[in-house]
Design brief:
248 residues; Endonuclease III, domain 1; two-stranded antiparallel sheet; 13 helices
């Protein structure tokens, strides 16, 4: 994909969503940091449900420590790996208070030194909270980068590095959000909705074409074409057996 194509790709994503933001719900830098830590191997929806009850009770490092690990575990128990995450958040709060005065640091090394914070979480916090033009690669962005041909690489770190290199500067700040939202709501893992994709003409992904997807989406007697085809294929042996019985 050349520079002109990459520029137009991002221009279209920006036109669809001029002011993208994270699906995570937060009101300050600390809430954002904790929410991102909790979102590892979990959906933003599940995190938001838990934090909607947690934030009114504890949304500062000291308040989390006052709550205690047991009560924190109970508050986030609907999220995957909640026991490990609760332990990390407690340690994270202790370190924030001891080393940073309870303030989320605007520094990658300091962020990655916090318990439960890796390069991806640090990139999200730097980008969203501090406006640093960096890209954190999750499964959605990894999929979009490889399918489209925007940054085809075999690891998340390599995808991130390549995206930061090839993304036009004017789009780099919001690229993370545009790509993750595109992957979450359009370029889905199982059935990408290519028929309504604004960047389909630049995409290298061949198995799903706009025409095929449009046909699959068009209902007939209340059922999509794909489901009708599967049903017909499944019923074929039974139909053949009935016809043979009639012939006898």
């Amino acid at each position: 994909m050349n520079l002109a194509q990459r520029t137009e790709l991002y221009r279209r994503l920006a036109a669809v969503n001029p002011n993208p933001r994270s699906d995570l719900e937060y009101s300050n830098d600390f809430e954002l940091l904790v929410a991102v830590v909790l979102s590892a191997q979990a959906t933003d929806v599940s995190v938001n449900k838990a934090t909607a009850k947690l934030w009114p009770v504890a949304n500062t490092p000291q308040a989390i420590l006052d709550l205690g690990e047991a009560r924190l575990r109970d508050a986030i128990k609907t999220i995957g790996l909640y026991q490990t995450k609760a332990r990390n958040v407690i340690k994270l709060c202790e370190q924030l208070l001891a080393l940073h005065g309870g303030v989320v640091p605007n520094d990658r090394a300091a962020l990655e030194a916090l318990p439960g914070v890796g390069s991806k979480t640090a990139s999200v916090v730097l980008n969203v909270a501090f406006g640093v033009p960096t890209i954190a690669v999750d499964t959605h962005i990894f999929r979009v980068a490889n399918r489209t041909g925007l940054a085809p690489e075999k690891t998340a770190d390599k995808v991130a590095a390549r995206l930061e290199k090839v993304t036009p500067k004017e789009y780099l700040l919001n690229a993370h959000h545009w790509l993750i939202l595109h992957g979450r709501y359009l370029c889905k893992a199982r059935t990408p909705e290519c028929w309504r994709c604004s960047i389909v003409e630049f995409c290298k992904y061949k198995p799903k074409t706009p025409a095929a997807a449009d046909e699959a989406a068009r209902p007939l007697n209340g059922k999509p074409v794909v489901k009708r085809r599967k049903a017909a294929k499944k019923a074929a042996p039974r139909t053949a057996a009935r016809n043979k019985a009639k012939a006898l």
